[in-house]
Amino acid sequence: MYPFSYTKVSDTRAALAAGRSGGRYIAGGTTLVDLMRETVERPGTLVDISALPLREIMVTARGGLRIGALVRMAEAAADPKVRGTFPVISQALELSASAQLRNMATIGGNIMQRTRCAYFRDVTAVCNKREPGSGCAARDGFHRTHAILGTSDQCAATHPSDVAVAFAALEATVHLLGPDGQRSVAFSDFLLQPGRTPNREQALRAGELITAVEIPAHPRPLQSGYLKVRDRQSYEFALTSAAVALYVRDGVIREAKVAAGGVGTVPWKLPAVERRLIGERPSAALWARAAERAADGARPLEHNRFKVDLLKRTVERQLRIVGGTE
């Protein structure tokens, strides 16, 4: 690990001043510290923001939910407001990492975490995320766990967060505070696809700080849940996953929110699936028809072609679990 300086701040003004000077924010440190040990990340200054007052979970005036950026994953998963309103969030958090990590890692840090691509973390391998223009070792190497959606010639790494898939499905908003004041970014615009600049992963401006993630109000009762398919039962990243939320009234699906994980360079919203569902009556045949659209636009590589069918089956299964059948 390379030498670095460390400072701890207790208010947002001090945090922004340190961030403006080039400091890297750290709270739980469950991702950044690992990357520093592997010399993938080499920040000159760490700014500990764990004492900032960003730990509240509150119901908004319109009936949505606002989760502070420094709320621990375990706290958010167990919170009655989260569990009662959006079970998909609680389930996604509980299927993430280990209990020890969930007790340390924060909501803001979780959506900011960088890919678990082995080539990105191996400093002897070429990686455009780590060194722009150097190449992508995954494309010619072993890429079974890599993305089939949102890839480019520059990068095929998946985003590893589970709860980010739930946030994408529910069309959340990320609230930010920076040198130029407050602003909000739709979750769909916050995490960036690689394109020609895979090293730029979030729509953050210099010195900006995540303050909260807000989920808008949805019609009640909203049925929701998260399904994660992986090589082993625990402490493993998704091969595929599906976050589903359905609002059914008078036997007809009035609203559908669906997103997938483990298959995209960012959590992947599935609007074609959603359109197939809205206005229809729940049935086994409907789930199968809708799930057929889950892999629209997929560009698999040699070793991960299986993810196309696995994604469709994952989405269909979770639609059955959340929506049931008549």
Produce a short descriptive summary.
With 326 residues, the chain is of the alpha+beta class.
Layout of strands and helices, then pairs:
Blueprint: E1 5-8, H1 12-20, E2 24-26, H2 32-37, E3 45-48, E4 57-59, E5 65-68, H3 73-78, H4 80-85, H5 87-94, H6 99-104, H7 107-112, H8 118-121, H9 137-140, H10 163-169, E6 173-178, E7 181-186, H11 187-190, E8 209-215, E9 223-229, E10 240-249, E11 252-261, E12 268-269, H12 271-277, H13 284-291, H14 306-323
Parallel strand pairs: 1-3, 2-3
Antiparallel strand pairs: 4-5, 5-8, 6-7, 6-8, 9-10, 10-11, 11-12
Helix pairs in contact: 5-10, 12-13, 13-14
What features would you describe in this structure?
Among the domains are: 1-53, Uridine Diphospho-n-acetylenolpyruvylglucosamine Reductase, domain 2, CATH 3.30.43; 223-323, Enolase-like, domain 1. The protein is an alpha+beta fold and 326 residues long. Strand 4 and strand 5 (65-68) form a beta hairpin. It is globular, with a radius of gyration of 20 Å. The model has no long low-confidence stretch (mean pLDDT 96). Helices cover 30% and strands 20% of the residues. The chain has helices at 12-20, 32-37, 73-78, 80-85, 87-94, 99-104, 107-112, 118-121, 137-140, 163-169, 187-190, 271-277, 284-291, 306-323, and strands spanning 5-8, 24-26, 45-48, 57-59, 65-68, 173-178, 181-186, 209-215, 223-229, 240-249, 252-261, 268-269.
